[in-house]
Design brief:
- This protein is an alpha+beta fold.
- It is built from three helices and six strands; from the N terminus they run αβββββαβα.
- It is about 25% helix and about 25% strand.
């Protein structure tokens, strides 16, 4: 007789996400980007770190992609209003949300930064990165 074990919640969401995206090259394909995304392009990036943070009843996934781990470019149609770095981060965020991590969509707000997670959290929650204080 065979026994099958079912693990409903084996490990945390954070560890599952880390296993999916950290250290693996992820390629944004211009043809498969979310149709409403104004920033299109072909980019390959590698996630270095991520962390799930719960604050005020919401869960956030902060993702760190160093600039040195980004190859390619996107078209920033909002140049002058949005920096090229923010446009690139928005494109990476969209790609992760709708492709790599679509099963977590709605459970987490996904935010990609080109600065380490602790600095990104300080920037997001308090408007300042410790690096610039």
């Amino acid at each position: 007789m065979k026994y099958i074990k079912i693990f409903e919640d084996f490990g945390s969401d954070e560890q599952s996400i880390k296993d999916l995206i950290i250290g693996k090259p992820i390629t944004i394909n211009k043809d498969k980007q979310h149709k409403d995304m104004p920033f299109k392009g072909n980019v390959t990036f590698t996630v270095k770190d991520c962390e799930v943070v719960e604050k005020n009843g919401s869960k956030y996934l902060f993702v760190y992609v160093p600039e040195s781990d980004i190859e390619g470019n996107i078209t920033n149609t909002y140049r002058g209003q949005i920096s090229d770095n923010k446009a690139l981060c928005m494109a990476m965020t969209s790609w992760l949300a709708f492709n790599e991590l679509s099963s977590y969509l709605g459970k987490l707000d996904i935010l990609v930064y080109t600065e380490p997670v602790d600095e990104a959290m300080a920037d997001f929650f308090f408007g300042k990165s410790p690096r610039y204080q």
